[in-house]
Structures are given as C-alpha cells and as structure tokens.
Amino acid sequence: MNVSQQSFALALFGRILQAAGAAAIPATAMLIPVRYFPPERRGSVLGMTAVGLALGGALGLVLSALIVSFAHWRWLFAVPLLILATLPFYRKYLAEEDTLSRGSFDWLGGALLGVSVALLLLGVTNGTWWFLLGSLLTLALFIVRIRRAADPFVQPKIFANKRYTAGLVLAVLINGMGIALYYVSPLLLSSVQELSTNWIGFVMVPAAVASALLGRVGGKLADRKGNAYLFFLASGLLLVCFGLLSTFTGIAVIGIACFLIFGNVGQSFMQITLANSISGTLAKEQAGVGMGIFSMLNFISMGIASGIYSKVIDLGATTQWNPVNPYAAAFVYSNIYLVLAALHALIFLFYYFRFGKTRSSGLQANS
Predict the structure, then answer these.
(1) Options 3.90.190.20, 1.20.140.10, 3.90.1170.20, 1.20.1250.20; which CATH number does 25-72+160-367 get?
(2) What are the protein's UniProt keywords (predicted)?
C-alpha cells in the first residue's frame, strides 16, 4: 500500500468514526423537543433546532471555504472537536432520567443493520449488484434477529403503527429529494457557472441564513395552524425553487443564490413538519427509538439519493425535458430539477388527499 492509499484509508476510517458520533446529534436534537415539551409547543421548539442547523450550515460553508483557502483540507477534521464545548451544557440542563427498560443492548442486531446500510450505500454508489444482494441478505438476518431477540435493537411492533410508517415513507422520499439542494446545486455552480470551491460556499450562505431567520416562524406556524398548513407551504416553496432552477440553470450566480433561498427555507419547514408529525404518532416509550429510526432513514435516503444524482450527472443528457430552459450546457441539471419538481407536486397532491382534509392527530393536520 503506497502513501496515497494509506492516506485515503486513514481519511475513510476517520470519516467513519466521525459519522458514528455525529449521527447522534440530529437524533438528539429531535428527541429533546419530543421528550421535554408538550405537543402544543413542540413545533416552536423544533423550529429552534432548525435555526441551529441552518446557522451551522451557513457558518460551516464559510468556515470550510476559509480553512481550505488558507490551510490544508485535513484541518477540516478538527472542526467537529468544537462539539466538546457543548457537553457541559448537556450535563447542566438535561436531568438524569430513569430508563424505561434496563434490558441488554442488542449488539448483533445493531451490527446487522449497520452492515446492511453500508452495503446498500456502496451498492448504489458503485453500481455493484453484489453489494445490493449482500444488503438484502443482512437485512433479512436483521429482521429475523429482532423478531427472536429478547431485547431487540428495534421493536418490530413499532412498524405496525401505520401513521408512523407512512410518515417514514414520506420522510425518505422528501429528504432524498431535498439533498439535491446541497449536493446537486454546488455541482451546477461549478460546472455551469464555473465557480471555484471557495465562492460556491459563499453563494449558498444566503439560503442558509434565510432558513435560520425563518426557522422559528415555521415552528410557530406548525403550532398555530397545524402541520398540514406548514407542509403545504414548504411544498410550495420547494416547487418554486426546483421549477426556477430547472428553467434558469444557466442564470447569473445571484439568481441561483436567490432560488436556493426558496428551497432551503422550504426544506427547513418540511423537516419541522415531518418531525412534529411523526413524533405525534409515537407513544412515550417508543419516542427514542422511533425518532432515531427517523433520523437514520434521513441519512440513508440522502446517501442513496446523492449516489443516484452522481450517476445521472456522470451519464449527462442530450435531451432537454424543460422546453423553457434556454441553456443547452445544463440539460442534465435542468432535467434533474424538473423531475424533483414533478415529484414534489405528486407528494403535495398525495398529502392533500390523504391527510390535508382532516384535522386530527399524528401525520394529519396537527399532532
């Protein structure tokens, strides 16, 4: 193994360790509002978490660009160490709790699920059927394990909750589409607008700042007018964003920055309403694992979607699906955004006819 291969292996191992720890952060951010706040205030609190995520996104883009500009990219791995500064606040403000169950941890079940997810992502990214088959096999073993273990990694009965399961399906689809804002858009700015890495980060900052400023507004709207209202508003903003990006893929950079504001705010609102709705379908003893599964599936859907977008962009496009788009050099990006706009329109209609006409608990108008 040469030096470059060793460096790659160490970087990959470091990212695995980093991701293993970082995965707990968004799950905790959603679990705290569910555990410590009543349903009538939960939207506002989730809005505050959205503000923190958006601010982190804005500052992260700028900080990363500055680090890469003035230092080696390896220093990016030191930034997450700042999370250690928050530990005293967790210890101070989160009281000790009596656990609902003192059973043993299902290490085998967790390992099977982790392997299944890893193989799935590798299969999608590399287009390798063997990885996908391995993922299905380990998933089958995981299902067998949780049905037979005394203290399973995930209680199978949680998936018997149809409203919870419907929410997970919606979340997987919506987050898989939403990652295009943060993955496809930088590629568009690089290949079509020909921006450097440093400037791409700055172009995306206004959208992150707008999400931070309006995050609390979205949470309050969920509490006052219901989850369905916020869902429709978020869907409308995302439709506008993807429609504009599909039509004007070659527009000046300032135009892309403005379009992304609609999308980022819409995706932030969507996260609030999904988390608020799904949490309302869970009993107290299922809240931890239920929201953990929700967070896990968000990561999986975004990882799979990113792999799909990469493949589509690599293949390119010779046909323009949006007849209004005048930019021939950006066909593939225009087509991706057009498909995402169409999918959001279908989800909008599905949600309206399935949940939007009623006002009751869970995934429906208000939790």
Answers:
(1) 1.20.1250.20
(2) Membrane, Transmembrane, Transmembrane helix, Transport
